[in-house]
């Protein structure tokens, strides 16, 4: 496979990530896979570290702009054996089986001994390993959230937390009233304790937002319970006889007893 000369400024993958499998060595042959959801298979094949490889087997799979009759997505797929017959199709099948999009290249350095069908197992395992490393990296919470402080997001969260604090103060006062408790701030609007959220990191602010939301949810449930008790007491008061009615009922009962 011919290669063109490359210069540092002509590096199409310098700012893009690719994921490398652990090497597999069998009878002096070595296999290493390189996977990327962004880099093309041609550019992966041209990586400098693959320049001495005997074969640079490639496969790719990407979304197509077309759709099937049932509106199901269609994918453009393909492979390049690079002299290792049937190996490219093996790689393509790995992309399909794992539902992966992008390109993958398995480089083989031939060791002088024919491996037979075992080489396809090595190609497959290398490819799966590289894709697995990408999945682990891309789904890692710390990577996904990029816990670096985002000033704009911190500012929004700090403002949201202050609003939550004010709501919690008002709801707690309402809960006291519903439960018939004496309020220390009768006739005035309760003022929440002012917190300075500025110095806190983004992750702490996000956790506090969850805590505040949970607190508001709990208070609202308690208010609902208190309102049900209040309504029950009102109904009980309405159906209970007045003292005059009780006395009248007692008089009727006594007169009935005298008549007998």
Strand content: 15-25%
C-alpha Rg, in Å?
36 Å
Q: Mean pLDDT, as a whole number?
A: 81
Q: Which series of helices and strands comes N to C?
A: EEEHEEHEHHHHH
**Helix percent band:** 40-55%
Low-confidence stretches: 1-10
The helix/strand class is alpha+beta
Number of helices: 7
State the end-to-end CA separation: 122 Å
Question: Summed up, what is this model?
Answer:
The protein is α+β, with helices and mostly antiparallel strands and 260 residues long. Helices cover 49% and strands 16% of the residues. It has helices at 41-45, 87-98, 118-139, 141-145, 151-178, 202-239, 243-259, and strands spanning 19-20, 24-26, 29-36, 55-67, 73-80, 102-109.
Could you characterize what this model shows?
The N and C termini lie far apart (122 Å). The chain has helices at residues 41-45, 87-98, 118-139, 141-145, 151-178, 202-239, 243-259; strands spanning 19-20, 24-26, 29-36, 55-67, 73-80, 102-109. The longest helix is centred in the C-terminal third of the chain and has 38 residues, at 202-239. It is elongated. It is built from seven helices and six strands. The chain is 49% helix and 16% strand. With 260 residues, the chain is an alpha+beta fold. Residues 1-10 have low confidence and may be disordered. β2 and β3 form a beta hairpin. Strands 1, 2, 3, 4, 5 and 6 form a six-stranded antiparallel beta sheet that branches.
């Amino acid at each position: 496979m011919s290669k063109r000369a490359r210069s540092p400024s002509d590096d199409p993958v310098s700012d893009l990530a690719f994921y490398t499998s652990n090497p597999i060595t069998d009878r002096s042959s070595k296999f290493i896979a390189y996977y990327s959801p962004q880099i093309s298979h041609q550019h992966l094949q041209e990586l400098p570290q693959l320049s001495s490889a005997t074969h640079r087997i490639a496969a790719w799979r990407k979304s197509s702009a077309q759709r099937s009759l049932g509106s199901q997505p269609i994918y453009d797929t393909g492979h390049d054996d690079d002299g290792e017959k049937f190996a490219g199709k093996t790689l393509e099948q790995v992309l399909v089986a794992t539902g992966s999009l992008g390109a993958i290249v398995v480089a083989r350095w031939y060791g002088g001994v024919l491996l037979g069908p075992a080489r396809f197992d090595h190609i497959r395992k290398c490819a799966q390993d590289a894709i697995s490393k990408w999945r682990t990296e891309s789904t890692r919470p710390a990577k996904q959230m990029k816990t670096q402080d985002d000033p704009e997001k911190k500012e929004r969260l700090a403002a949201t937390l202050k609003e939550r604090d004010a709501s919690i103060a008002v709801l707690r006062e309402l809960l006291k009233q519903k439960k018939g408790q004496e309020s220390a701030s009768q006739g005035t609007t309760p003022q929440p304790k002012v917190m300075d959220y500025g110095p806190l990191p983004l992750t702490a602010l996000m956790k506090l937002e969850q805590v505040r939301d949970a607190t508001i949810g709990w208070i609202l449930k308690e208010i609902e319970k208190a309102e049900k008790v209040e309504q029950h007491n009102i109904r009980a008061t309405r159906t209970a006889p007045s003292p005059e009615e009780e006395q009248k009922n007692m008089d009727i009962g006594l007169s009935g007893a005298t008549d007998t």
